[in-house]
Amino acid sequence: MTTRSALFTNANLVDPEAGTTRGDSWLLVRDGLIADHGRGEAPGADAEVIDLGGASLLPGLVDAHVHATALSADLGSVSDRSPSYVAAYAARSLTDMLHRGFTTVRDVGGGDHGLADAIADGLFDGPRLLFGGKALSQTGGHGDFRPRGRHGRDAHGCCPGAGLVCDGPIEFRRAAREQLRTGAHHVKIMLSGGVASPTDRIDSTQSADDEIRAVVEEAEAANRYVTGHAYTARAVNRGLRLGVRCIEHGNLIDESSVGLFVDNDAYLVPTLVTYRELSRQGARNGLPPESQAKVDTVLTRGLDALRLAHEAGVNLVFGTDLLGAMQAHQNEEFAIRAQVQPAPDVLRAATGTAARLLGLEGRIGTLRPGAHADLIAVEGDPLADVSVLADPEHHLRLVMRDGVVRHTRNTASQR
């Protein structure tokens, strides 16, 4: 598909930054960028006219916690598949994400430069992919997916799948440099136990202080940042004090944690929908029994943590962390968050705030002229009711990335 000029007319322009919806509006796209927008009669332009008939036009969505290669909730089983099979699965997974309205995603374990390059070169249609490569984990940590009876690892420290096993600051430093060498947008480190890993406890702390510092130093030297998997306040707080810029999950944080987030201008990426789906259908999607027992520990506390962080003014970013067939529920995170957050705040988590975390402020998640023309059209006003984004099958009409319409759908109202 080639980039072209397009003029959207009869649109309700939804600006998440300003928190406004402006009816009877137009927006001009040229050379893959937003050129201009306004209200009333559209200007004459040598462009394809797309009449939205009163639908809402807003920036494309960002999911800052995906695992494109996670074809099963049994993450260790990925190693039993051919790399070409995993790549084919990831291509379909990423295309599906784009068709749900996500024009940018951040892969925090498994996705690599090959997938990002394939999208950039047009080998398949997907969202802009910001990858971290393999997540760094201590032996027996959340990135070590070996069952108890399996010993040894390959020459690269993989055990294998989305994680890279390291022990000691030298190994962690080398592993961080290796991810950065491939062009990683960030480096992920495991700071606590997790659900999908078979041999650790949720409430454990992982990675020693000197190991964390080594990774932070390497990321900062490369003008990148570290994001940390963590649940408990103890694990989260230690990571934030040592320079970790972003925390994934954080279901078990407390008042001391939110103070550190605010003081350090750090980011939190809750992923609530994955625990709901793991509870509902994890077993039939490959979640091992030892992992199933962990789900309830984090499921019941997730909304409380989100409410606490929201009320304290923490930088909150949209993420889902869904595995295998459960990825189909990606948009439902919007409805879950709406239980404790106003619609404009939920929408900003998937647009402007996400853009700041990703270092793309002013380029994605915005309607500013000069930004990438990453846009979606939906029936309804997500600033008034963000749940319209939770049901793309019935509300999403169009997806544009970099000025090219990538997907259209006849919505229920049009049928």
From TrEMBL:
Keyword Hydrolase recorded: yes
SUPFAM superfamilies linked to this entry: Composite domain of metallo-dependent hydrolases, Metallo-dependent hydrolases
GO molecular function: hydrolase activity, acting on carbon-nitrogen (but not peptide) bonds
PANTHER family in UniProt: ALPHA-D-RIBOSE 1-METHYLPHOSPHONATE 5-TRIPHOSPHATE DIPHOSPHATASE (PTHR43135:SF3)
Protein name (Swiss-Prot/TrEMBL): Imidazolonepropionase-like amidohydrolase
InterPro entries from the UniProt entry: Amidohydro-rel, Metal-dep_hydrolase_composite, Metal_Hydrolase, Metallo-dep_Hydrolase, OTAase-like
Domain of life of the native organism: Bacteria
Residue stretches making up the Amidohydrolase-related domain: 57-393
Keywords of this entry: Hydrolase
